[in-house]
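Sequence only, no structure available. Ideas?
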Amino acid sequence: MVSPAIALAFLPFLITLLIRYRHYLVLLYRAVLLGWLQDRLSGVPREQRAFQYVLTHAIPGDPHHILHTFDQWSYRCEHLSCVGPLKGKIVERLLCERAPRTVLELGTYCGYGTVLMAAAMPAGAHLYTVEPNPRHASVAEKVIRLAGFDEQKVSRGPAGRWQRGAGGAEGGSTQVELIVGPSEEVIPQLRARHGLHNVDFVFMDHWKRCYLRDLKLLEEHGLLADRATVLADNVVFPGAPHFLQYAKTCGKYRCRVHRASLEYCRAIPDGIAELCYTGGR
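Reply:
I predicted one. Tokens follow.
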């Protein structure tokens, strides 16, 4: 049994730890414990609860208002692992600078990043987004449609694919394809099954442990166009050290990290890695 004197000696140390890591404890509560409790009490998954909030409060057909409503939910109610407004501005800026014709998103989740990018892409561009979880894909499909990207037609195709025409400027529209399946299975099939010969812009926001594997898959299958941009979210927290090490040392990329904060947690540092593919030249 620990004596009171020893317990008192450790008390300042414990208080220091609680103060230093209080933001991470709050994140643990909001992102894990609260969501788990609400799932059990309501019987409705967190992502579906978030969509119902968006459906009630957002303006249909207005992508920016829908994203803002998602942000309000995540700040006021429960944490969602979306790219969020701060890092979203980085993604939007780079999309506008690069003006890519083909974009690949790995990790659709609730469709936040998909809507953000579809709204920022040039007319006539094509966005492919890959989500392994069918429940999340079902929510994302409804969010994409609510944002006005294909209010008229939704068709379910082979391998769990939805294809929709996204509202854009005159003279063309952004085409969005939601592909349901694990990224390690989908990436090798992108050319043969989905007609994607190469991609100008990649946004990774799925499992961090999959970043390096999927980057190498894109290389092996020749899917990265010359000077393609690869963005990877959450490379500082929770972090993707092996991915960053490879990107910086393999000689195929120019790499920089845009520092920011974790989505909906301003006190926790995070960042987005930006890779420019040079093919080793």
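Confidence is low (pLDDT under 50) at residues 151-172.
Hope that gets you unstuck.
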